Amino acid sequence: MESTGVYWIREYEVLEQRAFEVILVNGRYAKNVPGRKPDVSEPAWLRQLYSCGLLRGSFRHDAEIATLRAYLRQRERLVEYAAAHIQHMQKVLIEMNRQLHRLVSDITGATGMRIVRPIVARAILTCWRPTVNSSIETIRTALVVTIGTNMSSR
């Protein structure tokens, strides 16, 4: 089986679970071998190249290690997304002329969030218009529950 992108992973796992001996081949090595390989007969072409010794199987971790690596990659991606969102928060605060980054080193920490929550709640309340179906008191109550701050000082 040729490894191109992520498309091969599920098929590889299914074949492996059904006790097939699956050899994973790097697509770059298969492409560098001279000769024609139409897409229809690609598996036969790869099998022929492998049996002649022109291709070698790629290393593949066992299922437990592969699962752990997938979790670690996902965690790394989520940490990157969180960092981007924190930067967006800092940018909006700066645009609101709130220089919070000069007071606290981490705006998502306990102190930073105690400062940010009332700012957000007050900004939401200032957007209220009489055409909104909910009363300002209903919105204030929802913000107290959702954001977790006391809105009575508005």
Automatic annotation (TrEMBL):
Domain of life from the UniProt record: Bacteria
Stretches of the chain forming a coiled coil according to its record: none
GO aspect biological process, one term: DNA transposition
A Gene Ontology molecular function term of the record: DNA binding
All residue ranges annotated as the Transposase IS110-like N-terminal domain in the record: 1-95
PANTHER family in the cross-refs: TRANSPOSASE (PTHR33055:SF13), TRANSPOSASE FOR INSERTION SEQUENCE ELEMENT IS1111A (PTHR33055)
Name by which UniProt lists this protein: Transposase IS110-like N-terminal domain-containing protein
Species whose genome carries this gene: Bradyrhizobium ivorense
